[in-house]
Write a structure and sequence with these properties.
6-stranded mixed beta sheet; about 350 residues; alpha/beta; globular
């Protein structure tokens, strides 16, 4: 039995106690050493949104060709990343790990642990804005993950990302920026480097398309045949708590997007909601939105504009912040201080499409 602690503890019979300045830093150092024991390819994924979807899809798409070890759920923090990398073993031959940050100074720690050989930078949005002075600063901090990569995959439409990558990647030839062109219905032409591939994608929503294209480009860069890529994309699964559409009670439909709750995530989820035509009434249940860097009244006024744009008929707000700024929302709405209060109200949602955020 070994305990790593920051404070003095009484002697534990039969146990060893290692006192350190920071137990988290100690865990990161141990995980970094563990990572150094393996030389198979490791994919590192960062970005404001889409990290977990891309990771889960890639794990599914590549499991026929590789023995994959990946981040559990959304383990992408200062604690989650070392726990994820600790799973690496000689039984695996490909690692896929996601990295998330909320302020400057964090990505350098995660880069030392993951040491990716191939990077995927999904996008840059407004998640965790309060920890950065600008979107450029945030993009540059995230780009630190890729400074030792052999290849970095990103969308050429993300100019801020490209600018950030050029600062940290020592050779421009390592940057694999892709562009996509709509051909006939559901057919997309993807161009990157010396490659052009045509794929039929089942998604219409831009965010799902973007994530699927990231995956396709990774597979091609790993040397997989276009037919194998197409076959895999045809069978991509839904990811838990990420725009997960479910048949619900009362002849209603539920969109479970409860994992994250930032402004860009709200925008994406509302767009997905507006595309659902199963029922006429569109409703939203949402909670306090944090880490945006935007003052409360301005934040919820902006959210209200999103509701209006996407023709939301009804809103249920849960949380003290939401209730505090209820005057900023002019869509018909109800408010509850917490989830328990909402559940006790025995509220009935019937014959509508409900987004839970």
């Amino acid at each position: 039995r070994l305990f790593v602690v920051e404070k003095e503890v009484v002697d534990l019979d039969g146990a060893s106690v290692l006192k350190v300045a920071s137990s988290i830093e100690a865990m990161q150092c141990i995980a970094s050493y563990h990572r150094s024991l393996f030389d198979y390819p490791v994919l590192g994924i960062t970005g404001s949104n889409g990290k977990t979807i891309v990771k889960e899809w890639l794990a599914t798409l590549l499991n026929q060709s590789y023995q994959v070890v990946k981040s559990p759920k959304s383990y992408n923090s200062q604690v989650g990343v070392p726990l994820s990398v600790w799973q690496m073993s000689e039984n695996d031959n490909l690692g896929i790990f996601e990295a998330g940050i909320s302020k400057t100074g964090e990505m350098a720690n995660l880069e030392k642990i993951i040491k990716p050989t191939i990077g995927i930078f999904t996008n840059i949005g407004e998640a965790h804005n309060e920890g950065f002075t600008s979107k450029i600063e945030k993009a540059e901090e995230k780009a630190l993950l890729f400074k030792g990569c052999q290849k970095v995959i990103y969308s050429k439409s993300e100019k801020i990302i490209e600018e950030a990558l050029l600062r940290y990647v020592d050779d421009k030839s390592k940057l694999i920026g892709w562009t996509a062109e709509q051909l006939e219905q559901n057919m997309i032409r993807i161009s990157f480097g010396e490659h052009t591939i045509n794929l039929r994608l089942k998604f219409k929503e831009p965010y799902f398309l973007e994530n699927a294209i990231h995956c396709a480009v990774v597979m091609k860069e790993l040397g997989l045949d276009e037919n194998v890529i197409q076959s895999g994309l045809n069978n991509l699964p839904a990811v838990k708590m990420r725009l997960e559409l479910k048949q619900a009670v009362g002849q209603s439909y539920l969109i479970d997007d409860t994992y994250n709750n930032d402004l860009h995530g709200m925008e994406v989820a509302l767009d997905f909601l507006s595309r659902q035509n199963q029922k006429r009434t569109k409703s939203v249940i949402f909670s306090d939105i944090s880490q945006t860097g935007i003052e409360g009244a301005a934040l919820y006024s902006r959210v209200n504009q999103m509701f209006r744009k996407n023709q939301v008929a009804k809103v249920i707000g849960i949380g003290k912040e939401v209730e505090k700024y209820r005057a900023e929302i002019d869509v018909p709405s109800e408010y509850f201080p917490d989830t328990d209060a909402f559940l006790k109200s025995n509220h009935k949602l019937a014959d509508e499409v409900v987004l839970v955020k």
